[in-house]
Amino acid sequence: MERAKSIIAALAVAACLPYLVLKLVWLTGGRLGIPEGSRLLDSGATMWILNALTVAMDGTVIVLVLALTRPWGRRLPAAVLALPLWIACGLLGPIAVAFPLQTLYGALSGSTGGGSGGDGGADKLLEGWVWTLVYTGFTVQALTLSSLFVLYVRNRWGALLRSPLHLGGTEPDSTPRWHRYGFAAAVLVALPCVAGHAVRMADATTDSRITDATFLLYLFAALAAVAKLLRTGGAERRTKARLWPTLAAAWTGSGVLACWGGWLLLGALTGGGRTLGQETTGAALLTYSCQTLVGLLLATLAAPRLRHRAQLPTPRPVSGATARQHA
Questions:
Q1: Which of 161, 184, 213 finishes a domain?
Q2: Is 13 helix (H, G, I), strand (E, B) or coil?
Q3: Around 149, how many Cα atoms within 13 Å sit in the side-chain half-sphere?
């Protein structure tokens, strides 16, 4: 797999370069891909700061690629890798789902929305090729980084992830009270988020509907996954289902909600989002805030469950003879 990892890593780094080059050109005063009359030409210091922040974020992806493929990355504490990878998965996850669907719809319908998630006016903000180049790069980043992440996790914690979702006697007989209250709070906070995205889907372009539907997909997946992680049943509850699918859904879903909600909220509050055509009404701010809070709540609930499982001895398969003896 070393050769395959090297190829995937090279693709991931190559996918970062177009975005980095464009952003660096804009930061130094260049206008590559920005047409005459674009709002970006008069965006001021706020957009410069946000552009610098996104350069740092895309540069972090390259560092993560190295950490996931080089020997020194295996020696890093899990906590050092967890937060930046969670953020990266959260920000890239919706793009990997929504952009291919938007591109397919555009090809079938002749739409020129550019995959930006906005309306046809997106071409007045940036040249059409910029949207295609940038979001194609993001999609490749999502696929390659997630592939490297899967290989890294399989090599380092494969036995844990292949273990059963529920271990029976090693679990408490009931879910701790604060877990139940926390999950109930997450469900309540999710309601305005669901309503906000549903309202937007009722009165928006197809690209925007695909984006909002993608957020709802991750929201429901995260809620279902965390509910399964928190569910316990005492000594008799041991399932054949493995831990990794549920953990992957909780990890990615909570990251998408918290990170994209936070990013949209930052754009709305700083004014940078308004320059890009982002909705900044009171209802939109409520949706962004609730989305961020739901993601953080779900991550806070899932993290101690994973930490508890990591501290338990990995269960070994029970042979038929041993099972009969225990019976």
A1: 161
A2: helix
A3: 23
**The token pair that represents 193 in the structure block:** 């988020």
**Which amino acid does the sequence have at 135?**
Y
Distance CA 75, CA 290 (A): 36
Query: Taking the complete model, does pTM exceed 0.90, yes or no?
Result: no
Long-range contact set of residues 148-152: C-beta below 8 Å, sequence gap at least 24:
148/5, 148/8, 148/9, 148/12, 148/65, 148/68, 148/69, 149/68, 149/85, 149/89, 151/1, 151/5, 151/68, 152/68, 152/69, 152/73
Structural domain boundaries, residue 283: 163-311
pLDDT digits 0-9 by tens, 261-304? 999 999 999 888 888 888 889 999 999 999 999 999 999 999 88
**pLDDT tens-digit series, residues 91-147:** 999 999 999 999 999 889 876 554 443 344 444 789 989 999 999 999 999 999 999
Could you give the C-alpha distances from 141 to 39, 103, 129, 240, 327, in angstroms and in order?
28, 17, 18, 33, 50
Contact call for residues 125 and 39 (beta carbons, < 8 A): yes
Q: Is 247 exposed, middle or buried (0-12, 13-18, 19+ CB in 10 A)?
A: buried
- Number of compact structural domains in the chain: 2
Q: Is residue 318 part of a domain?
A: no
Does any domain span residue 50?
yes
